[in-house]
Write a structure and sequence with these properties.
The N and C termini lie far apart (61 Å). The chain has 16 helices and 19 strands. The radius of gyration is 21 Å and the shape is globular. The strands form 3 sheets. It has an 8-stranded parallel beta sheet, with helices on both faces. A 7-stranded mixed beta sheet has the order 3-2-7-16-17-18-19, with no helix packed on it. A 4-stranded mixed beta sheet has the order 5-4-1-6, with no helix packed on it. The chain folds into 2 domains: 104 residues, Urease, subunit C, domain 1 (Roll), CATH 2.30.40; 313 residues, TIM Barrel. 34% of the residues lie in helices and 19% in strands. The structure holds zinc ion (ZN).
C-alpha cells in the first residue's frame, strides 16, 4: 500500500536552494512513501490521496537544527547565570546540575525540546548530548532516539563526552562525577552505530562522534585517535570550537597556534566535520575551513545571550564554508525555535555589517539545505523531486501578515510566533493546525513543572563548593 499526500494551493514555495533556485512560486507538491514525487503548478488529486489544503500558506523545507543540547530544556533562565559569559554560565547553570539530570528528567527535557522544535517547523534535529560519565549515562543515547521516534523527528545523535582527568575538565572538577574511559566511550559509540545508524540518502537516525570540546575533553593524542575511530566506522565528527576568545587564548598558550590550526593538526578538519559557533576566527582559519569543506553550525542567539560575539558568517559563506543553523541549548537561548534563530541570523549580520550582509534566501538555505549538507543527509533539506518529504506549511492567515508585499519572506522576516498549518517528516504529518499530532500537552506541562522544581537552585545539594 502506498501513502500519498497532495499539498495544494500554496501561495509560494521556497526550495532551500540558493539564488534563482530559491523560489519555486505557487506549486502543488505530491508526496508518496515519504518522498517528494511531483512539483507542478496544478496537480489533480487522486482517488486514494490525502489532500492538504495550503491555501494562502507558504511552504518551506523543514528546518534542520545542527546543534542542540536537549537536556537543557529544563534550565531556561536560571537566575544566577542570566548575566554571565560562557565560563561563568557553565559553572553556575549546567555543571552543577549534570549529575541531577536523571533519565526520567532527560526524557521530560527531550520531549519538551522536541515539541518546541516541531512547533517552529524543525524536521531534523542534531542533538549534541554530552552527559556521559563513569557512573552511567550510556542509556541516554537510547532514550533520545526513543523520544525522537515518539515525535517522528529525523534525529542525529552527536555522542559527546569527555575523558580528561577530573582536574583538567571544568565540568567534572565541579561535581563528584568521574569521566568515562576512552575505551568505554568508543565501545558505546560502536554499540550506538550498530543499533541506530542508518545509511542511504534520507536516514531517520544517524550517530556522530562529538566530544564536548576538542581542547578540554580529551588530550590531543586521543582526539586524533577518536577521529580515526569515527572515520573507520563511517561516522561524522562534531564539537564546539572558538565560541569565546578563551579557545584562542588556550590554543595560543598551550599549543602556540590558532584553534582551527590545532584541530587541523589533529585530523579534525574535512567535509565530514562541523563545528558549533566559530565566533572568533582569523581569515587564515576561514580559508582552512573552506578549503577542507569543514562546516559550521551558526548559533547567533546563544552567542548574543552569552556575550560571545557575532560569528563572521557572511565572510565564511563568501569563502565557501558550508553554513548551517543551530539553536544551541536553551539554557543559553531561552528559545528552541529555528524561526527565532533564522530571524536573528538574518538581522544580526545586517546590524554589524550593513543591510546587504544577509538575505532571507541565504538564511533559509543555511537553515535547511545547508544543514543537510553539514549532517551528510544527501536527499534531505530541499523541496525538489526525489528529496525526503520534510516540509512545513506556514499559515499566513493572521493580521500580522497583512500588508506584506513579498509574503514568501514572512516566516523569516517577521519571526515568531510561527503559525503552522501542517508539518511533515518523511511524508508523515507531525503537526496539524498548530498542534503536535498525538501529544498530551497538559501532561507534558505537568511533567515539566515538576522537573523544574527538582532542578531549582535551592533544591540542589551543595556538592559544587
Ligand atoms: Zn553547544
Amino acid at each position: 500500500m502506498t501513502s500519498s499526500i497532495l499539498i495544494r494551493n500554496a501561495t509560494a514555495v521556497m526550495s532551500g536552494g540558493r539564488g534563482e533556485s530559491a523560489r519555486l512560486g505557487a506549486q502543488d507538491i505530491r508526496i508518496q512513501d515519504g518522498i517528494i514525487r511531483e512539483i507542478a503548478p496544478s496537480l489533480t488529486p487522486r482517488a486514494d490521496e490525502k489532500v492538504l489544503d495550503a491555501r494562502g500558506g507558504i511552504v518551506y523545507p523543514g528546518w534542520i537544527n545542527t546543534h542542540h543540547h536537549l537536556f537543557q530544556n529544563l534550565l531556561k533562565a536560571v537566575p544566577e547565570g542570566m548575566n554571565d559569559d560562557l565560563q561563568g554560565w557553565l559553572a553556575k547553570v549546567p555543571y552543577p546540575r549534570l549529575a541531577k539530570v536523571t533519565p526520567e528528567l532527560l526524557r521530560v527535557a527531550a520531549r519538551l525540546g522536541m515539541a518546541e522544535l516541531l512547533l517552529s517547523g524543525v524536521t531534523t534535529c542534531a542533538d549534541h548530548h554530552y552527559l556521559y560519565h563513569a557512573h552511567g549515562g550510556t542509556e541516554t543515547g537510547d532514550l533520545l532516539f526513543d523520544v525522537a521516534d515518539e515525535f517522528g523527528m529525523r534525529f542525529v545523535l552527536c555522542r559527546g563526552g569527555a575523558v580528561q582527568s577530573a582536574a583538567a575538565h571544568p565540568g567534572f572538577s565541579k561535581t563528584a562525577l568521574q569521566p568515562e574511559t576512552f575505551e568505554g566511550m568508543v565501545a558505546d559509540i560502536e554499540r550506538l552505530k550498530a543499533r541506530y545508524h542508518q545509511s542511504g540518502p534520507h536516514p531517520m537516525r544517524r550517530v556522530v562522534v562529538a566530544p564536548t570540546t576538542p581542547t578540554f575533553s580529551l588530550p590531543p593524542l586521543l582526539l586524533r585517535e577518536l577521529a580515526g575511530v569515527a572515520r573507520g566506522l563511517g561516522l561524522r565528527l562534531h564539537t564546539h570550537l572558538s565560541e569565546t576568545d578563551n579557545y584562542v587564548k588556550f590554543c595560543r598558550e598551550k599549543y602556540n597556534c590558532l584553534p582551527v590550526e590545532f584541530v587541523a593538526d589533529n585530523d579534525w578538519l574535512g567535509p565530514d566535520v562541523w563545528f558549533a559557533h566559530m565566533v572568533h576566527m582569523q581569515p587564515s582559519e576561514i580559508r582552512l575551513m573552506a578549503t577542507t569543506g569543514t562546516g559550521v553550525s551558526h548559533c547567533p542567539v546563544s552567542n548574543a545571550r552569552l556575550g560571545s560575539g557575532i560569528a563572521p558568517i557572511p565572510q565564511m559563506a563568501a569563502a565557501g564554508v558550508p553554513i548551517s543553523l543551530g539553536v544551541d541549548g536553551v539554557a543559553s537561548n531561552e528559545s528552541g525555535s529555528m524561526v527565532n534563530e533564522a530571524h536573528t541570523a538574518w538581522l544580526i549580520h545586517r546590524a554589524a555589517q550593513g543591510a546587504s550582509a544577509t538575505t532571507v534566501e541565504d538564511v533559509i538555505h543555511w537553515g535547511t539545505a545547508g544543514g543537510a549538507r553539514v549532517l551528510g543527509l544527501e536527499s534531505v533539506g530541499r523541496i525538489a523531486v526525489g528529496e525526503a518529504a520534510d516540509l512545513v506549511i506556514y499559515n499566513m492567515d493572521h493580521l500580522r501578515y497583512w500588508g506584506f508585499h513579498d509574503i514568501a519572506t514572512a516566516p523569516v522576516a517577521a519571526g515568531e510566533p510561527a503559525r503552522i498549518r501542517a508539518s511533515l517528516i518523511a511524508g508523515k504529518v507531525v503537526v496539524e493546525d498548530g498542534e503536535i499530532v498525538g501529544l498530551d500537552v497538559a501532561k507534558l506541562r505537568r511533567d515539566a513543572a515538576q522537573a523544574v522544581v527538582s532542578l531549582m537552585s535551592e533544591n540542589l545539594e551543595t556538592e559544587t563548593a
